[in-house]
Amino acid sequence: MxxxxxxxxxxxxxxxxxVRALDGLSxxxxxxxxxxxxxxxxAGKSTLVRCxxxxxxxxxxxxxxxxxxMAALSPGELRKARRAIGMVFQHANLLDSRxxxxxxxxxxxxxxxxxGSRHETVQRMLDLVGLGDxxxxxxxxxxxxxxxxxxxxxxxxxxxxxxxxxxPTSALDPETTRSILELIRDxxxxxxxxxxxxxxxxxxxxxxCDSVSLLEAGRVVESGxxxxxxxxxxxxxxxxxVPVPEVxxxxxxxxxxxxxxxLTAHPGQPAAAHVMSLAAEQGADVAGGVFxxxxxxxxxxLALTVPASRSSAAVAALREAGVTVEExx
Length: 329
Known about the structure:
Blueprint: E1 2-12, E2 18-29, E3 34-38, H1 45-52, E4 60-65, E5 68-69, H2 75-82, E6 85-88, H3 100-110, H4 115-128, H5 144-156, E7 162-166, H6 174-191, E8 194-198, H7 202-208, E9 211-216, E10 219-225, H8 226-231, H9 236-241, E11 256-265, H10 271-281, E12 285-294, E13 297-307, H11 311-320, E14 324-327
Parallel strand pairs: 3-8, 3-9, 6-7, 7-8
Antiparallel strand pairs: 1-2, 1-4, 4-5, 9-10, 11-13, 11-14, 12-13
Helix pairs in contact: 3-4, 3-5, 4-5, 5-6
């Protein structure tokens, strides 16, 4: 559904300097997926969104959305192609002077859909996002989460093939964030729309994404299905998605060291119990742990404490059993 191949975007500044926002970025997102794009400020996330919507044309490389090369379209073709892409923003950006229903109908009006044909679509979209009875409400009468639901309904009104969500939950509280992400997954499941979520929050990726890419300096440095990414315990994404637990130095005995253990298990594999049993045999204690279920995999990070005199033996025993373990610096 989305394909970017060796995309470069270079901006020329007034002082003659250049800024390379995208530097050979390549990315594939299959139809029906929910794909997360993460990265720090300046990594190229915003430029990526602008290239996907052809608000920016790449300096070189190819951007294809729903089978169309966005940079090769005429202005008329581009207007039509953009109707296949719905946008959800950090703030809903609703028109304050229009009701909820009028906000959702706005893209239909721009597309030339006759007024009499809009009502059914608008009501269907409001029902989809759980606001079927709020069509006459104005944005000032809605909560932050409700406004974002209206924004999602508006983005879906034109029946797009792709839904781009740019930091859709960063302005929301945790409970509202959870409900919005559940809605996005439900929309994908019901409509089959392909979703790309631009975010800096790993909790968003853990909760809703099927796959994820890490951007750095305008390039994709890691990418893959969530289960595959977290299984590679040497990857940065794996550590950021499921970080090792903190162990305060003050809580350690004078001669204790901390061992970081990473494991991935699928149903029926008692990996966690096995590791803890091995640890106990080596005189180690579990100082902390975190487990996440991502897809069909259970991902765990354990912090073990062990006397320094037994650290090498414990590491060797765990590695011999196929466990990924490192002594914390």
